[in-house]
Amino acid sequence: MSPSMLTLLLFVFSLSSNLAMAVKKGIQTPQTLSRGWGDDITWIQTYEEGLYNAKKRNKPLMVIHHLEDCQYCQALKKVFSENDEVQQLAKEKFIMLNLMHETSDNNLSPDGQYVPRIMFIDPSLTVRTDITGIYSNRQYTYEPEDIPLLLENMKKALILV
Protein backbone atom coordinates (compact mmCIF):
# COMPACT_ATOMS: atom_id res chain seq x y z
CA MET A 1 0.00 0.00 0.00
CA SER A 2 1.45 3.36 -1.01
CA PRO A 3 2.03 6.11 1.60
CA SER A 4 -0.48 8.43 -0.08
CA MET A 5 -3.14 5.70 -0.03
CA LEU A 6 -2.43 5.05 3.65
CA THR A 7 -2.71 8.77 4.41
CA LEU A 8 -6.03 8.95 2.60
CA LEU A 9 -7.34 5.90 4.48
CA LEU A 10 -6.33 7.39 7.84
CA PHE A 11 -7.97 10.70 6.94
CA VAL A 12 -11.25 9.02 5.94
CA PHE A 13 -11.22 6.87 9.11
CA SER A 14 -10.57 9.89 11.32
CA LEU A 15 -13.28 11.91 9.62
CA SER A 16 -15.87 9.17 9.90
CA SER A 17 -15.08 8.45 13.55
CA ASN A 18 -15.36 12.17 14.40
CA LEU A 19 -18.68 12.33 12.59
CA ALA A 20 -19.92 9.25 14.43
CA MET A 21 -18.91 10.81 17.76
CA ALA A 22 -20.74 14.03 16.89
CA VAL A 23 -23.91 12.11 15.98
CA LYS A 24 -23.64 9.99 19.15
CA LYS A 25 -23.28 13.11 21.34
CA GLY A 26 -26.31 14.70 19.65
CA ILE A 27 -24.36 17.69 18.40
CA GLN A 28 -26.59 19.75 16.15
CA THR A 29 -25.50 21.25 12.89
CA PRO A 30 -25.34 25.05 12.84
CA GLN A 31 -28.69 26.71 12.21
CA THR A 32 -29.35 28.75 9.12
CA LEU A 33 -30.94 32.17 9.38
CA SER A 34 -34.32 30.50 8.77
CA ARG A 35 -34.22 28.87 12.21
CA GLY A 36 -36.89 26.49 10.89
CA TRP A 37 -39.31 29.13 9.55
CA GLY A 38 -38.59 28.22 5.90
CA ASP A 39 -35.31 27.11 4.42
CA ASP A 40 -36.23 28.19 0.88
CA ILE A 41 -36.78 31.79 1.98
CA THR A 42 -33.93 34.31 1.85
CA TRP A 43 -33.61 35.61 5.42
CA ILE A 44 -32.00 38.91 6.37
CA GLN A 45 -29.59 38.85 9.30
CA THR A 46 -30.31 42.18 11.07
CA TYR A 47 -33.16 44.65 11.45
CA GLU A 48 -31.05 47.42 9.91
CA GLU A 49 -30.28 45.24 6.89
CA GLY A 50 -34.00 44.48 6.59
CA LEU A 51 -34.92 48.17 6.57
CA TYR A 52 -32.26 48.90 3.96
CA ASN A 53 -33.46 46.07 1.69
CA ALA A 54 -37.14 46.95 2.12
CA LYS A 55 -36.48 50.48 0.90
CA LYS A 56 -34.02 49.48 -1.83
CA ARG A 57 -36.11 46.59 -3.24
CA ASN A 58 -39.50 48.27 -2.62
CA LYS A 59 -40.83 45.28 -0.68
CA PRO A 60 -42.37 45.15 2.78
CA LEU A 61 -40.30 43.77 5.65
CA MET A 62 -41.90 41.03 7.75
CA VAL A 63 -40.37 40.71 11.22
CA ILE A 64 -41.07 37.58 13.25
CA HIS A 65 -40.15 37.86 16.94
CA HIS A 66 -39.80 34.44 18.58
CA LEU A 67 -37.85 32.35 21.08
CA GLU A 68 -36.54 28.81 20.66
CA ASP A 69 -37.93 27.59 23.99
CA CYS A 70 -41.42 29.10 23.51
CA GLN A 71 -44.04 26.40 22.84
CA TYR A 72 -46.35 28.92 21.13
CA CYS A 73 -43.53 30.06 18.83
CA GLN A 74 -42.69 26.46 17.97
CA ALA A 75 -46.32 25.67 17.14
CA LEU A 76 -46.62 28.75 14.92
CA LYS A 77 -43.28 28.01 13.26
CA LYS A 78 -44.46 24.50 12.37
CA VAL A 79 -47.62 25.64 10.54
CA PHE A 80 -45.83 28.67 9.02
CA SER A 81 -43.10 26.47 7.54
CA GLU A 82 -45.59 23.86 6.28
CA ASN A 83 -48.01 26.26 4.59
CA ASP A 84 -47.07 26.45 0.90
CA GLU A 85 -48.93 29.70 0.21
CA VAL A 86 -47.33 31.49 3.18
CA GLN A 87 -43.90 30.18 2.17
CA GLN A 88 -44.29 31.26 -1.46
CA LEU A 89 -45.54 34.73 -0.54
CA ALA A 90 -42.76 35.18 2.02
CA LYS A 91 -40.13 34.02 -0.47
CA GLU A 92 -41.28 36.12 -3.42
CA LYS A 93 -42.86 39.28 -2.03
CA PHE A 94 -41.22 40.09 1.33
CA ILE A 95 -37.93 40.91 2.94
CA MET A 96 -37.91 38.38 5.77
CA LEU A 97 -36.35 38.62 9.22
CA ASN A 98 -36.83 36.44 12.27
CA LEU A 99 -35.46 37.73 15.57
CA MET A 100 -34.84 35.97 18.82
CA HIS A 101 -34.13 39.27 20.60
CA GLU A 102 -35.69 42.71 20.74
CA THR A 103 -34.54 45.57 18.52
CA SER A 104 -33.82 49.11 19.63
CA ASP A 105 -36.82 50.28 17.56
CA ASN A 106 -39.68 50.69 20.04
CA ASN A 107 -42.09 50.94 17.09
CA LEU A 108 -41.82 47.15 16.79
CA SER A 109 -43.41 46.67 20.20
CA PRO A 110 -46.38 49.08 20.22
CA ASP A 111 -48.32 46.93 22.71
CA GLY A 112 -45.45 45.26 24.55
CA GLN A 113 -42.63 42.78 24.09
CA TYR A 114 -44.02 39.27 23.76
CA VAL A 115 -43.56 36.31 21.46
CA PRO A 116 -44.57 35.22 18.96
CA ARG A 117 -45.10 38.65 17.42
CA ILE A 118 -45.22 39.47 13.71
CA MET A 119 -44.89 43.02 12.43
CA PHE A 120 -44.84 44.48 8.94
CA ILE A 121 -42.82 47.51 7.80
CA ASP A 122 -43.54 49.02 4.41
CA PRO A 123 -40.82 50.23 1.99
CA SER A 124 -41.25 53.81 3.24
CA LEU A 125 -40.07 52.36 6.60
CA THR A 126 -43.46 52.86 8.27
CA VAL A 127 -44.40 50.20 10.81
CA ARG A 128 -47.82 48.92 9.79
CA THR A 129 -49.56 49.04 13.18
CA ASP A 130 -52.86 48.77 11.30
CA ILE A 131 -52.14 45.12 10.41
CA THR A 132 -53.03 43.12 13.51
CA GLY A 133 -54.13 39.69 14.64
CA ILE A 134 -57.36 39.00 16.54
CA TYR A 135 -56.18 39.24 20.15
CA SER A 136 -56.82 42.52 21.95
CA ASN A 137 -54.17 41.94 24.63
CA ARG A 138 -51.42 40.95 22.12
CA GLN A 139 -52.42 42.54 18.83
CA TYR A 140 -49.51 41.23 16.74
CA THR A 141 -49.49 37.61 17.81
CA TYR A 142 -50.77 34.68 15.80
CA GLU A 143 -51.58 31.15 16.87
CA PRO A 144 -51.37 28.11 14.55
CA GLU A 145 -55.07 28.28 13.71
CA ASP A 146 -54.62 31.97 12.70
CA ILE A 147 -52.57 31.13 9.58
CA PRO A 148 -55.44 32.16 7.23
CA LEU A 149 -55.51 35.57 8.96
CA LEU A 150 -51.72 35.86 8.76
CA LEU A 151 -51.91 35.09 5.05
CA GLU A 152 -54.60 37.75 4.61
CA ASN A 153 -52.45 40.23 6.57
CA MET A 154 -49.42 39.42 4.43
CA LYS A 155 -51.51 40.34 1.38
CA LYS A 156 -52.61 43.59 3.11
CA ALA A 157 -48.96 44.43 3.77
CA LEU A 158 -48.30 44.24 0.04
CA ILE A 159 -50.65 47.16 -0.54
CA LEU A 160 -48.34 50.11 0.00
CA VAL A 161 -49.59 52.87 2.25
UniProtKB/TrEMBL annotation:
Residues 1-22 form the signal peptide. Gene3D superfamilies: Glutaredoxin. The keyword Signal applies. Keywords: Signal. GO terms for molecular function: dystroglycan binding. One of its GO terms (cellular component) is endoplasmic reticulum. It comes from the Eukaryota. The keyword Signal applies. PANTHER family: ANTERIOR GRADIENT PROTEIN 3 (PTHR15337:SF5), ANTERIOR GRADIENT PROTEIN-RELATED (PTHR15337). Belongs to the AGR family. This is Anterior gradient protein 3. It comes from Hymenochirus boettgeri (Congo dwarf clawed frog).
